[in-house]
Amino acid sequence: GVYCQCAESSPPPPAAMNEAQQNQQLMMMITELQVRDSISTYNRLVQRCFRSCVKDFRNNTLDKKEAKCVEIAAEKFLRHSQRTGARFAEHQSREQQRMQAVAAAQAMAAPAPIG
Questions:
Q1: Which of 70, 78, 32, 28 is nearest to 51 (CA)?
Q2: CA 42/CA 81 separation, integer angstroms
Q3: Contact 14, 26 (CB under 8 A)
Q4: What Å distances lie between residue 37 and 4, 28, 33, 42, 54, CA to CA?
Q5: Alpha carbon distance 95, 65 (integer Å)
Q6: What is the per-residue pLDDT for 14?
Q7: Torsion of CA 19, 21, 22, 23, to 10 degrees
Q8: How many whole angstroms separate alpha carbon 87 and alpha carbon 96?
Q9: Alpha-carbon separation of residue 41 from 21, 60, 77, 108 (angstroms)
Q10: pLDDT surpasses 90 at 110
Q11: How confident is the model at residue 48 (pLDDT cuts 50, 70, 90)?
Q12: Does residue 8 have a pLDDT over 60?
């Protein structure tokens, strides 16, 4: 899709923003990415269902066979997306635990400060 930020002003440099402003800007960016991802997912779903299911262009509505095909294709796509998201979350959790373990091991191996 085409996205235009013509009316938006560019954000101030990070050094000029306080922590609250930086957090707000980060949250806005995350929200925008989530919206883009949702739109992209929806568009992929529509394209896939249309290509797989719509065969007859004589009517402006789906026949029963096409409607059932779209329903099944959408269910499959959504189940796959949920499963992929769950696997990604599991992977991220394991990776975070691994990083914490590495940081803890490094902290234990570091020499104690003299003081």
A1: 70
A2: 11
A3: no
A4: 16, 14, 6, 9, 25
A5: 45
A6: 56
A7: 90
A8: 14
A9: 30, 25, 9, 45
A10: no
A11: confident
A12: no
Cβ neighbours of residue 56 closer than 8 Å, sequence gap 6 or more: 63, 66
Q: Number of C-alpha atoms within 13 angstroms, CB side, residue 72?
A: 8
Could you tell me the two tokens for 40?
């992209």
E strand residue ranges, 1-115: none
pTM metric for this prediction:
0.52
What average pLDDT does the structure give for the chain?
Answer: 83
Identity of the residue numbered 82: Q
